Amino acid sequence: MRLGVFGGSFDPIHNAHLFVAESVRLLEGLDRVLFVPTRNQRHRAPSHAGEADRCEMIRLAIAGNPGFALDETDVAPDATGYTADLLPKLQAKYPDAKLTFVIGADSLVNSTWRRFDEVLEALEYFAIAPRPGVRSDALARVIAAVPSALRERVRTLNVPEISESSSLIRSLVAQGRSARYLLPDAVWAYVVARGLYASEIS
Q1: pLDDT tens digits for 140-154?
Q2: Which of 49, 51, 54, 189 is spaced 20 to 30 Å from 75 by Cα?
Q3: Which helix (DSSP H) or strand (DSSP E) does residue 32 occupy?
């Protein structure tokens, strides 16, 4: 079995997340993509919505695709928020799986990754989705810093750059504007019903 591991805050999950997940599933021939929300975000501000809300929004968003699944390993009380700690837990949970980690180029370039060699060693592939605003030379520098023995595991996905983002959605909602059609209808209905992001300044 070949599994994609799509980690992130998903605060909230939106259509671009789903597009990238489906694209990598097909391009890399994955059996399933796991959406893995994180509780401890080492490189970002705390999530605006809690773990339960973010997990429920993922469930709603992926309900129609049998190639997607939610995995809550990284929101468990003992989760560290480090990918190097997450991957062995997932490998133990899915012992027969080969893992491909999916990440946006912005998260790779703008974050300081610790134990990156450990992450790559635990994976079949590390798949990078292009993001608007990320310079190709900046991405190339990060990839060039990967040890040559592991560099073949790093792949850049041939998918369009999509500017949609969770921060944009939170900003629109905080301004009292609609974010409908930027995220699945069921997720938008959940955001409205729960009053998520409405009183926050993104």
Answers
A1: 888 888 888 898 999
A2: 189
A3: strand 32-37
